[in-house]
Amino acid sequence: MARPPVTHTGSVRGHKSCGFLLVGLLVFATVANADEAVPWESLSESEREVLAPLEETWSELPAKRQRRLQRGAARWETMDKGERDGARKKMQRWRGLSAEKRQRIRQRFDRFQSLPAETQERLRKRRRWFQSLPKERQDKLREKWRGMTAEERRDTARKWNQKRRERLQKKKRYKKKLRQQQRDQKQQRRQGRDSE
Fold first, then answer.
1. How far does CA 150 lie from the centroid of its chain?
2. CA–CA separation, 47 vs 72, rounded Å?
3. CB of 70 within 8 A of CB of 47?
4. How far apart are CA 157 and CA 147, in angstroms?
5. C-alpha distance across the termini of the chain, in Å
6. For residues 65 and 192, what is the distance between their CA atoms, to the nearest angstrom?
7. Rounded CA separation 163/186 (Å)
8. Helix axes 135-146, 117-132, angle to 10 degrees
9. What tens digit of pLDDT does each residue of 128-156 get?
């Protein structure tokens, strides 16, 4: 059975559905393009300049990594001199790592990206806490951590998480108790006014 021909009604409703269709197609096209490689020639002049050391191997890189590098090159353009100097130092350290170590770091990064947002935020918070410690304390903790077996590390993490849960529960109980005290005080004030 043949479909009836589609007629243009000229209504606003028809334009809205057309707009939604267009937006849907654009989103789909963007998602589909995310898996496609980025040709070197499609990079802007400034992106090619920043990524010049990778030109020879660019076509061999996975599409996901090409896109990440392209975003990094765009971000580079917005950095001031101090930020660029810091980024250069990090890049020099990165290049100094063995291929095996870089691969492990990439795997950790991918694993981190796959975590739920709240877990990522909790880990970021822990990192900020660690970085706020004095250098000597950081070094001691690093040394202790490196000296542990995988099982000891898991046990330490479990204990740390348990303490964290206990602190949160204690904080909740305290807040609940405080709210109850405030309600009781309010009620006593009302009763005092009513008895006058």
1. 26
2. 9
3. yes
4. 15
5. 87
6. 70
7. 34
8. 120
9. 999 999 999 999 999 998 999 999 988 98
Name the residue among 13, 74, 12, 10 with its Cα closest to residue 46: 74
Distance (Å, rounded) from C-alpha 175 to C-alpha 171? 6
How distant, in Å, are the alpha carbons of 40, 131, 138, 185 from that of 135?
A: 43, 8, 5, 47
Spatial distance between the Cα atoms of 95 and 54, rounded to a whole number of angstroms: 12
DSSP letter string, 57-123: TGGGS-HHHHHHHHHHHHHHHH--HHHHHHHHHHHHHHHHS-HHHHHHHHHHHHHHHTS-HHHHHHH
pTM check: above 0.70: no
Exposure pattern of 63-77 as b/e (b: 16+ CB <10 Å)? eeebbebbeebeebe
Identify the H or E element spanning 25. helix 12-34
pLDDT-derived band at 165 (thresholds 50, 70, 90) equals: confident
Residue in this structure with the two tokens 């170590």, named with its chain if needed: 101
Angstrom CA distances, 7 to 12, 25, 170, stand at 14, 21, 66
Which residue type does 146 have? R
